[in-house]
Amino acid sequence: MSVSKLAEFGVKHVARGIGRLSNHVLESGAGSYVTTTEGRKMLDFTSGIGVTNLGHCHPAVTKAAQEQVGTLVHGQVNIAFQKPYLELVESLLPMMPHKSLDTFFFWNSGSEAVEAAVKLARHATKKQNIIVMQGSYHGRTFGTMAMTRSKTIYGENYAPLMPGVFSVPFPYCKQCSISHSTDGKFGFENCCMDPVLQLELLLKRETAPSDTAAIFVEPVLGEGGYVPPPAGYLAALRKICDKHNILLVCDEVQCGFGRTGKMFAVEHWDVRPDVLIMAKGIANGFPLSGIVSRKELMDKQNPGSMGGTYAGNAVSCAAGVAVAKAFKEEKILDNVNARGAELKDALQAAWKDSKTGKLIYDVRGLGLMLALECTPGKGYASKIQAKCMEKDMLVLTTSIYDTLRFIPPLNITKEDMAAGIKIITDAINEVAA
Ligand code: PMP
Q1: Rounded to an integer, what distance in angstroms lies between the CA atom of residue 335 and that of residue 9?
Q2: Domain finish residue from 309, 329, 349
Q3: Is 222 close to ligand 1, i.e. is its CB under 6 Å away?
Q4: Quick one: 293 and 222 in the same domain?
């Protein structure tokens, strides 16, 4: 098929429900750049939604996967152990945010891993209900759709969804303040009130602790707007969980694997999850996800009740081992913090600037998980996004708020970051003009 016909073919034959930022057809990727079939080289500040964290086609990851393809592609976890699977466990064990997290189960996608965590929580506690945060995203399967509270589009017209899911506000009071009220007249500066109190009330009014298996939380809200919680919030959740024998499940699918400048986001607040959910960056683009918990909990599940044909694929696991090695050898976290500071400084400078500042409502985030929330109601984020695209840069929006998110590869070079900052600031300036 001729290159010029590819996008048209895709629009005709690929499911509309997917939805796309663009109709570019990607052909190759290297480091922080992707190249389209039309030969357009674009700076990728999306990392395929926080997945290719070590850049596209990281040489060591590619080599490990290529070697594994020639050795063993598929073993099947319900038949036997697979060498790369066990090597991945060995690589991840010392990276866990708490030593109690010592028993793993690997899946393919983030959603499947979230569902595996729901199964674990129900089975281990013999309780059914779960609590999620408003604004959270956990996936698009039937179980996870019920848990996803970032945008109604994910669940609209797909009901009935999994029952037994309750929600409480995630603390980002700025989102609730006056400028976001529908008519701009209300002055509820603190309308989400105390989110910990809300949780306590929920456990009294709607789902009793004796019926509640787990609280699921993204330590940094992802699709809900790149919102880090205030200090003390996750510790308060931990306390409530301990008090009521409820499991604390941290979904680090988006914020984990170095994205926030620590290996896992919970480390910023020194909180111990009962279950940690991983995906995206774990294998730099190969389909792989997983949960980790303590053996005592995981061993409660009946043998055979977990598993799946492709779960913990050997090639993906081999890629994951190479990712873990690269994190150490290439001092990835140092780069995240250095490049993250450069980008955040630039965004904050645009916020302070008398001309561009009027477009900006908030700059937030940790490491290279950064957001620029625009002044509501004007569609600025999509305008800036479109300008970036014109300048050969891919960026994403997030949440119901007019927010751009920046998630470049964690090993982005200083030069590529400088190029990215220039495009973003030029785009903001042009929209402000
Ligand atoms: N949890 C979180 C926090 C996510 O950000 C995502 C994906 N954006 C998922 C779960 C679902 O992962 P997947 O798309 O791989 O199913």
Answers
A1: 40
A2: 329
A3: yes
A4: yes
